[in-house]
Design brief:
The chain is an alpha/beta fold. Helix content is 39%, strand content 16%. It is built from 12 helices and 13 strands. The chain has a 7-stranded parallel beta sheet with strand order 3-2-1-4-5-6-11, with helices on both faces. The structure holds nicotinamide-adenine-dinucleotide (NAD). Nicotinamide-adenine-dinucleotide binds next to helix 1 and strand 5.
């Protein structure tokens, strides 16, 4: 195809730049030699996870159409990482709020088309996949066509699936180049680990650290811990995002690790990093999402010649270290706990 991928002189908008993936993407783009990055988020600047020198930062509510036009003015490329979302605890209790993120993507698409943006990226999710294909922990990995017939996660997943199709139709009807990634459980440092929006890897790191800080030696696990997932380290997420954005792949693509674990195995790994073994208390009525989910990477391998490959233990070591530092766990905590 003759479409031009992102070039060094392009002006790039990252929407949701105060959040986890958006913050990392701004840093990555800058480090890869893209000097013209505009970072936008609704959060006040002092709540952003990362600030990158030289980047233009703006606080705007991108659910508003005017704000999307202001943010996209003069831009060649738009990455939409903005959404009102969180882990399973948040999305099961906030379905309407999750669906309102449709305003962000819709208004960003309208602005992009009107203002002549060349390339547009939308961050979709494995939550678009049909629920009846995920009711067993012994999963068949999900390939891209498993999103239809549609029966996604109620609320959050429906918004993602609708916005995917909006991207498709903006491309088909108006010629805007759109790319869509379906992220599978992204984790890493500089993300939410408490407050109710956190996802399983960060929540488990926090609970293991808290058990050491307060000496309870116990951990609460949502469900029976036998539900399965794959978890994608942030560096793989960024690599996949940029490869996809620079590709000619027009259909939504899985960007996810295929290393499948149970939540109990995830806890095993974090305990082993921390050097502790905790009493497990299972909260069977807590939100758990689907029973099992993995990413089928056949298509990303065929299309991009690449797939996420960073091991879960490696990624969790970096994530655990960052959260431990945020929570003030002394470096010698491991030795102190062992001595008790
Ligand atoms: N992290 C994951 O595991 C995962 C998995 C699948 C899909 N995704 C998608 O990737 C994107 C980024 O996720 P994340 O993990 O970085 O989440 P995040 O919550 O850390 O970041 C999202 C950011 O969007 C901002 N935002 C929300 N409403 C806004 C508005 N009206 N105007 C401007 N900014 C607004 C938030 O303030 C937040 O900083 C989201 O679209 C999310 O749905 C993430």
């Amino acid at each position: 195809m003759t479409e031009t991928p992102i070039g060094a002189s392009d002006r790039i908008l990252v929407a949701g730049a105060g959040g986890f993936i958006g913050g990392h993407l701004v840093r990555e783009l800058t480090e890869r030699g893209f000097p013209n990055v505009r970072a936008v988020d609704i959060k006040p600047l002092d709540e952003w996870y990362q600030h990158v020198p030289g980047v233009e930062e703006r606080v705007l509510d991108l659910a508003e159409k005017d704000a999307c036009f202001q943010a996209s003015q003069g831009m060649d490329v738009v990455f939409n990482l903005a959404a009102d979302m969180g882990g399973m605890g948040f999305i099961e209790a906030n379905k309407a709020r999750c669906m309102l993120s449709v305003l962000i993507n819709t208004h960003l698409l309208m602005a992009a088309q009107d203002l002549g943006v060349r390339r547009f990226f939308f961050s979709s999710s494995a939550c678009v996949y049909a629920a009846d294909k995920q009711d067993s922990p012994e999963v068949t990995a999900l390939s891209e066509e498993d999103a239809y017939p549609a029966m996604p996660e109620d609320g959050y997943g429906w918004e993602k699936l609708f916005s995917e199709r909006m991207c498709r139709h903006y491309r088909e009807d108006f010629g805007l180049i759109t790319r869509v990634a379906r992220y599978h459980n992204v984790y890493g440092p500089y993300g939410t680990y408490d407050g109710g929006r956190e996802k399983a890897p960060a929540a488990i790191c926090r609970k293991v650290i808290q058990a050491q800080l307060d000496g309870t030696h116990a951990i609460e696990i949502w469900g029976d811990g036998e539900q399965t997932r794959s978890f994608t380290y942030i560096d793989d997420c960024l690599e996949g995002t940029l490869r996809l954005m620079n590709s000619d792949v027009v259909e939504p693509l899985n960007v996810g690790s295929s290393e499948l674990v149970t939540i109990n195995q995830l806890v095993d790994i974090v305990e082993s990093i921390a050097g502790v073994s905790l009493e497990r208390r299972y909260k069977l009525d807590a939100p758990q999402g689907v029973r099992g989910r993995n990413s089928d990477n056949t298509r990303i391998l065929a299309e991009l010649g690449w797939e996420p490959s960073i091991g879960l233990r490696t990624g969790l070591e970096a994530t655990y270290a960052w959260i431990a530092e945020q929570m003030g766990l002394p470096a010698d905590a491991k030795a102190a706990v062992a001595a008790r």
